[in-house]
Design goal:
The chain has 311 residues and is an alpha/beta fold. It has 15 helices and 5 strands. It starts with a strand and ends in a 23-residue tail after the last helix.
């Protein structure tokens, strides 16, 4: 394989928007010699091998089998994979460091796919908001846990993005490109420029077209939706839970209704204070890795945007 591009999330950082854009621009990637696989396509192609490893703590042999199936199905000599569950599940930080198996997954990918060139794209999100969004995602897919129950095993040490970045860099060839970005940049760029910047960072040379509404992709749960989902998830069968999820997404999103209040101001400040040294190191990684043609964003300027209000 000539070029492998891995967009590995993180979860809740615009991955659905990016994947929609990749799908609708697939032909442009194909003309440049690239296959495109987004999350659902990857899962379908690999017949659940990767997800069984992720969900059931199965053997890494399942990950190897999944990448072998991807390799054997390739129709071009380069590949873009966008999959926020590729390295671990959305709540991996409840049982250990963020995306703890990342090194094993990336090493297997390289062993099986044998790329001449590798680009890894990772978007990060401020940890207090990340854990809240991760919790809401677990409720969307059926959990009945309260936020307090969800957070009970979580330690701040498990929420270090800088440790994940180091792990990624150590598990792939030294000449690989690792691009780390603040998801918060989407507030400055808005949806379409955000996607354009992502496409630019792949190094493929595709300029995206947008035959879809970029502002209506993957809205989050509101406070009302959360309350209704927690009740419904405990009472309904799988099929009816899915119907409820679609109804809540359409009628009770955080676009039209107030967002849930999960962490208190004091809890946010405590979390960010504990993570300040880690987030300062992360900021140096991000700003030190900016390319000359990177968009000039306020979020990349000055100190880390992930520090507590009192610095």
């Amino acid at each position: 394989m000539k070029h492998l591009v891995l967009h590995v999330g993180a979860h809740k950082t615009g991955t659905t928007l990016v994947q929609k854009a990749l799908q609708t621009n697939r032909e442009a990637f194909a003309k440049r010699g690239y296959d495109v696989l987004v999350r659902n396509e990857y899962e379908n192609l690999t017949e659940g091998y990767h997800s069984r490893w992720r969900r059931q703590a199965g053997s890494l042999g399942n990950v190897t089998k999944a990448f072998e199936m991807v390799r054997d199905a390739a129709t071009h000599d380069s590949l873009v994979i966008s999959h926020e569950d590729l390295l671990a599940s959305v709540h991996s930080f409840r049982t250990g460091p963020l995306y703890a198996p990342a090194d094993n997954v990336l090493r297997i990918a390289h062993k099986v796919l044998e790329p001449e060139r590798t680009t890894v794209l990772l978007y990060v999100r401020r940890q207090d908001r990340f854990v809240e969004s991760s919790y809401l995602q677990t409720v969307r897919v059926g959990s009945t846990k309260s936020f307090a129950e969800f957070m009970e095993p979580v330690t701040t040490e498990n929420l270090r993005w800088d440790s994940l970045v180091e792990k990624i860099k150590e598990s792939i060839p030294a000449d690989s490109e690792v691009r780390v970005n603040y998801f918060e940049g989407i507030k400055e760029l808005r949806s379409r420029p955000f996607v354009r910047e992502f496409f630019q960072q792949t190094g493929v040379g595709v300029v995206p077209k947008f035959p879809f509404n970029t502002e209506a992709v993957n809205r989050g749960y509101s406070e009302a939706a959360l309350k209704l989902a927690l009740v419904g998830n405990g009472e309904l069968e799988t099929g009816d839970r899915r119907k409820l999820r679609l109804f809540l997404d359409a009628n009770f999103s955080n676009v039209t209704h107030p967002s849930p209040l999960l962490l208190t101001k004091e809890q946010r400040e405590e979390m960010l204070a504990a993570l300040a040294p880690s987030n300062k190191a992360l900021h140096e990684m991000i700003t030190g890795g900016l390319s000359k043609d990177a968009v000039d964003l306020k979020v990349n300027a000055g100190e880390s945007p992930y520090l507590p209000s009192g610095k």
